[in-house]
Specification:
Blueprint: H1 2-21, H2 25-45, H3 49-74, E1 76-82, E2 89-91, E3 94-96, H4 98-110, E4 113-119, H5 122-130, E5 136-138, E6 150-163, E7 166-169, H6 170-178, E8 186-198, H7 202-218, H8 220-228
Parallel strand pairs: 1-4, 1-5
Antiparallel strand pairs: 2-3, 5-8, 6-7, 6-8
């Protein structure tokens, strides 16, 4: 019995350390719930089942639900997007594409509640993020689309071409080619695809940068690009 109690107490200590050292609030809340559950088990072992049940029902379940609801409300991210094949587009099963997968990976790390908002033009989407109607926009935006009231978070190098007198990025050019349209593009310059955010979103900017760094270091970015481009 003593060995069991020591082992569970050690787990409690480890959980407490992880709660304090977690990089995100969402991770801290989850480990707080684990720590509370371990505490309830310890109370049960030492002969206090009534206290254990109170701890589990109030100190774990209720508190965990309240914390998660609060985090979801605070960490709601309104994602504006343009429907661009291979990058982010609607499908019968929901959104799909290179940018959507990256957003999902960042979401898994940070615990965001993402609310997609579709726009029909670049101008409309850029105006929405400038006016704080959305927190973030994507849809094959490049560094050239970033204004003085927004920030661009680069995540992938691309090329800009001139086709029929208009500038076009690689993803849109590839879509034209797939649809049996034979453009005659002329290379113009190198650029970067970016996620565009408001100037007043330092927390979101930090979280996206951290998420992108992890995705790059794990090699996932190359796998995602390979699937779509």
């Amino acid at each position: 019995m003593n060995f069991v109690l020591i082992g569970i107490s050690s787990l409690y200590l480890v959980s407490a350390i992880i709660v304090l050292s977690s990089k995100t609030n969402f991770q801290s809340v989850i480990w707080f719930g684990i720590m509370g559950s371990v505490s309830a088990v310890i109370m049960m072992i030492i002969g206090a089942p009534d206290v254990a049940m109170t701890q589990f029902s109030v100190g774990v379940a209720l508190v965990l639900i309240v914390y998660i609801m609060a985090l979801k409300k605070q960490r709601r991210v309104r994602l504006g997007f343009l429907d661009v094949p291979s990058m982010i587009e609607e499908s019968p099963s929901g959104l799909r594409g290179l940018e959507w997968e990256i957003i999902q990976l960042v979401d898994e790390k940070e615990g965001y509640h993402v609310e997609p908002v579709k726009f029909s033009s670049k101008e409309e989407a850029l105006k929405a993020v400038e006016n704080h109607e959305v927190d973030l926009i994507c849809g094959a935006f490049t560094e050239d689309d970033v204004s003085g009231r927004t920030k661009g978070i680069p995540y992938l190098e691309t090329s800009i071409f001139v086709c029929n007198g208009e500038e076009i990025d690689f993803a849109r050019l590839k879509h034209l080619s797939r649809n049996a349209i034979s453009p005659t593009p002329e290379f113009l310059k190198k650029s970067n695809y970016v996620f565009v955010i408001s100037m007043n979103s330092p927390d979101l900017e930090r979280d996206i940068h951290e998420g992108l760094n992890e995705i790059r270091s794990s090699g996932n970015i190359e796998k995602i690009v390979g699937r779509y481009l």
